[in-house]
Design goal:
With about 900 residues, this protein is of the alpha+beta class. Helices cover about 60% and strands about 10% of the residues. It is built from 31 helices and 15 strands. A hairpin with a 2-residue loop joins strand 13 and strand 14. The radius of gyration is 36 Å and the shape is elongated. The two termini are about 35 Å apart.
């Protein structure tokens, strides 16, 4: 091997060039030998993957287990909200206080919840009697467990003061309304205020989350309710942590949902929407059940597309079965990967639905590239050498892209990823990528060997019978000639490659390449790219985090229906935020009182402190020192029936004869719009920093915060880490792999595709949740998978012009790219018919990934590469110098041997 020094080139440049060529040729030599080894032992490489699939496939059937803990999957694993939950729980039992800490869909423990909605124009308060009948049916409902009947009274959360079941205060309001109606009083005389109302026992209660669709009496000072559309009632169950208690609670919830369905049939004048603690997980898992049939349809479509796109009119060189076997190769590798996942005690969740599509998109690219590599080999070689040449030509690029897949998803599976569902998905993808790679060069490589042997022996690619001679065919009917045509009539001495007749390759060579490189088309492509970039940039400025759990649920599920009604009628107020003061405080001090007022300013408060101050002012009582303040609080205020429930909000300690308040809590509720989720995050981000700068040491907590706390950072971190890993890999290999300009163009192309998918999916109402983030990680690799071979072939091409170089690149790799992307996009179509928000997100993101990649490979790059470096002028000069040298050699030969010229 010799290297000619280019004029003006430094020694360092020559060294890097030599190193690149040595690495590249070394890899090609390795894969050539690997191809020869596979071609000499095809039965072994066919059998080993099949045996592995059978072994791990049985483990998939025997060890399948769904993951039922939705919080551990989709909530950030490490968040300050979980620490705050532990601290709050150590002060005040969350199980006892979950009725006060109202949360929309993230209520902890077991519970049953129902929304009762009146007809349009109706007033739900006029139907108090019907609602109380439904309420009594719930209380009397029995659940049988091992011969014992359990009712709500056996399972409910008990109040500390009287050991009665905790019930929503709206029940007391409804009972007052019913009694007023029975005593011939008008309902107007029972005044119901909103959001705080006065109960019969004198307590002031917040019912902002229990009464919805409220219209207030005009100009009413006490915010009296004129009418309401909906009532929400929650039945909280005790959680002891025992398995038996949990089983009974689960059965009660199931019976509760069935009872609500029965009540809906009996009361047509009301609409009932029920929810239980298991509803979210059940509707999350429902996506997998709904998608099973559609995934099989998707597989059939991919098989059909791969088979047709691998076919030719030439019955000898057509490879329909190889296209089909290539897809089956990816299927069995995915089954093997799933078996390994379950053997290692993995649990299934619905986010893993994306793995078959992700694996198929990468695996079939290797299949179609190997088929294209086979078509580029010389037909006069033995089939084993042709397989080795195909491996040498294709596997270098496929190894690089597979490595980048592994790096990207490996970074996503790292400890930096804070969402368990994303981490589990990335771990599975890493295993799937490794098995895909192994199965393609082994199982599919063996299939390629057998297909090559049939072609060399002139067997029909479909019927596997001997192809008759041309003279025999000429005597047969036209239909027989068409079926047995091996392309001999198309071959001439000007065309030595019969594979040029493949319909995709023929279309690209004869029509598309000339059209896309036409000078009149290029301005329109530039305008198209500017439009694409503008919309992408516009979308990137409007990114929303997807902390809303309903984005992962089946779209027609009870949970989604419930959440939409809840958002419509009960979104006037945020979830109830627990405000925990966790150290002794001088509550009697005027400065402290002002600080507390400042912190709670703008909130609707449910507070013992506020009620106590009002009590002192109403009685004209002075409590300006510690002893008076605590003495009146314990001996007078907390003994009043209407204030007894505040005992649960204060922790006293006694040191000798002196009492102290070591901790207390109050509740804050903010006025919100329908976008309660985002405003709750803003409240958390507003309150938490105040705890660091205020003299009052406090924490804020609501069960919803566990799912929302720094969700946007947690969910975007995997794609940032993966993108950084790929970028670092491409930069480090800038001077080692093939050509530095190839890596530079690849970085630009992948960035353009990634930002395009990110912006367009935002404009398509896709939020940044765990599914969309996984799709963005996949888009990075999908773009590299398809752009890298095209770009590297272009930068290494030695034609006279850039236009001719891009034509040759498209002709060489365009067929495989078009085959793979078309199979990938057609396989996504059935996802559109799965009634699930999760699959809608998956469909939209993967459709954008495939479409943007196709746009760049066939429209944007072919045009832009004709404008920008690398320049091809030095190749033109080299060819001129070689031609001049060859002419001089021929002249010398003619002078030395004139007789030879005469003879010629």
């Amino acid at each position: 091997m010799c290297f000619l020094r280019r004029p003006g080139a430094s020694a360092g440049w020559i060294w890097w060039r030599m190193l690149r060529q040595v690495i590249h040729r070394g890899l090609q030599s390795f894969f050539y030998k690997l191809g020869l080894f596979v071609s000499r032992h095809p039965v072994f490489f066919l059998t080993v993957p099949a045996v592995l699939t059978i072994i791990f496939g049985f483990s998939l059937l025997n060890r399948f287990q769904p993951d039922t803990d939705l919080e551990s999957l989709v909530a950030p694993s490490h968040s300050l909200a979980k620490i705050e939950r532990s601290l709050a729980s150590s002060l005040f039992s969350l199980d006892q206080s979950k009725s006060q800490l109202y949360s929309d869909l993230h209520t902890p423990g077991r519970y049953g919840r129902v929304i009762l909605l009146s007809k349009p124009g109706g007033n739900i308060l006029h139907q108090a009697d019907v609602i109380l009948q439904i309420h009594r049916a719930v209380l009397e409902m029995k659940v049988n467990y091992k011969g014992y009947n359990y009712t709500f009274s056996h399972l409910c959360v008990l109040r500390n003061q009287d050991k009665k079941c905790v019930l929503d205060d709206i029940i007391s309001v409804l009972e007052d309304l019913r009694q007023a109606a029975l005593s011939n009083k008008t309902t107007a005389r029972v005044q119901v205020s909103y959001p705080n109302t006065k109960l019969k026992d004198g307590r002031s209660s917040f019912i902002g989350h229990q009464l919805g669709g409220v219209m207030e009496v005009p100009n009413s000072k006490d915010q009296r309710v004129k009418s309401a559309r909906a009532i929400q009632i929650t039945y909280y169950l005790q959680t002891y942590g025992s398995v038996t208690q949990d089983l009974i609670g689960e059965k009660w919830e199931s019976e509760f949902c069935k009872l609500m369905h029965k009540m809906q049939l009996d009361h047509q004048d009301l609409q009932l929407y029920s929810l239980a603690s298991f509803s979210l997980w059940k509707d999350f898992h429902q996506t997998s059940l709904l998608a099973r049939g559609k995934i099989l349809v998707s597989l059939m479509l991919i098989l059909l597309t791969a088979t047709l796109s691998s076919s030719m009119k030439d019955c000898l060189r057509s490879k329909p079965f190889l296209g089909l076997l290539g897809v089956l190769t990816i299927c069995i590798s995915s089954v093997t990967a799933a078996g390994i996942f379950f053997i290692t005690d993995g649990k299934y969740n619905s986010t893993l639905l994306g793995i078959p599509f992700f694996a198929m998109g990468h695996g079939t690219k290797g299949v179609f590239e190997l088929l294209s590599g086979w078509r580029r080999t010389r037909e006069n070689l033995p089939f084993k050498d042709r397989v080795a040449d195909a491996y040498s030509d294709v596997m270098v690029s496929y190894t690089m892209t597979s490595s980048l897949y592994f790096i990207a998803f490996g970074m996503g599976a790292s400890p930096f990823t804070n969402i368990e569902a994303v981490k589990v998905f990335c771990q599975n993808m890493c295993v799937s990528i490794l098995l895909n790679y192994f199965f393609i060069f082994s199982f599919f490589g063996s299939c390629l060997v057998f297909a090559g042997q049939l072609e060399q022996n002139r067997y029909h690619s479909i019927f596997c019978c001997k192809i008759p001679s041309a003279e025999y065919l000429d005597r047969k009917p036209v239909w027989f000639q068409t079926m047995m045509n091996d392309g001999h009539q198309h071959t001439s001495h000007h065309e030595t490659d019969p594979y040029q007749h493949h319909f995709i390759q023929h279309f690209l060579r004869e029509h598309y390449n000339e059209w896309i490189t036409n000078i009149y088309v290029k301005p329109f492509v530039v305008i198209l790219y500017l439009i694409y970039a503008s919309f992408s940039f516009m979308g990137c400025l409007q990114i929303n985090d997807g902390a809303n759990i309903i984005n992962l649920l089946a779209s027609e599920s009870p949970s989604v229906s419930y959440a939409l009604i809840q958002q419509k009628y009960f979104s006037n107020y945020s979830p109830v935020i627990g405000f925990y003061i966790y150290e002794p405080l001088e509550y009697w001090n005027g400065t402290v009182q002002e600080d507390l007022k400042t912190l709670s300013q703008g909130f609707n408060t449910v507070s013992w402190i506020e009620q106590y101050y009002q009590y002192l002012r109403a009685g004209n009582i002075s409590a300006t020192n510690k002893s008076d303040f605590i003495s009146i609080l314990q001996n007078s205020f907390l003994k009043k029936p209407e204030f007894q429930h505040f005992k649960n909000d204060i922790i006293f300690s006694k040191t000798g004869d002196e009492n102290n308040i070591i901790a207390s809590r109050l509740y804050l509720v903010a006025r919100t719009s329908e976008n309660t989720q985002r405003e709750a995050v803003e409240l958390l981000e507003k309150l938490r920093p105040l705890s660091l700068i205020q003299s009052i040491k406090f924490i804020v907590f609501n069960p919803t915060f566990v799912f929302m706390d720094h969700y946007s950072l947690s969910v975007t971190m995997p794609v940032l880490i993966s993108g950084f890993g790929i970028l670092l890999m491409l930069i480090l290999t800038f001077f080692l792999v093939i050509h530095p300009l190839g890596n530079f163009w690849l970085i630009l192309s992948v960035t353009s595709i990634e930002l395009g998918v990110l912006g367009l999916m935002t404009l398509w109402n896709v939020d940044m949740d765990c599914i969309s983030i996984l799709c963005l990680i996949y888009t990075l690799n999908f773009a590299i998978d398809h752009c890298a071979p095209l770009l590297y072939t272009f930068v290494l091409a030695t034609e006279h012009t850039r236009t001719q170089c891009i034509k040759n690149s498209l002709q060489e790799h365009g067929t495989a790219i078009l085959q793979n992307v078309s199979s990938f996009l057609i396989g996504l179509v059935p996802l559109l018919f799965v009634p699930s928000n999760l699959t809608f997100t998956l469909f939209k993101c993967l459709l954008l990934a495939g479409s943007c990649t196709l746009l760049h490979c066939f429209v944007i790059l072919p045009v832009f590469l004709t404008f920008f470096p690398p320049s091809k002028k030095h190749h033109k000069k080299k060819k001129r110098a070689k031609r001049k040298e060859r002419e001089e050699i021929e002249c010398i030969e003619i002078q030395e041997n004139p007789d030879h010229v005469t003879a010629v």
